[in-house]
User: Fold this.
Amino acid sequence: MGRKRVKELSASDLWLLLECAYFHDTGMALSNEEIRELWTGNNEFKSFLYTAMETNDFDKKQAALYYKQMNDLLAGRKLSGPKIEFPLDWPVEMEKNITLLTGEFIRKNHPQKARENMESMSVQ
Assistant:
């Protein structure tokens, strides 16, 4: 947009642009129930997790592998892939990985979710 054009905007114009940007990101917000549904019953998300284990995105791959190893340990399954250490702060690392994976998955559809949020508010 450039500084020159921004300077031509009124305070109301700027506020409206910022409000749109903020509201757009409401599509990234999920309730605890929505996160549980995603992790327990969404086949598209399960497919995303397996794809994430093979991606070139280092952080996403590490997060997916960390989750898989912990899931396999808890389920009593034989571990596969590179062994991951679980230090004392493993719950913090697990939360970080779950947040990363959940965010990566919902990011692609968050504009639609923001729209649904807006529509549900206008109905009430």
Observations:
- The radius of gyration is 20 Å.
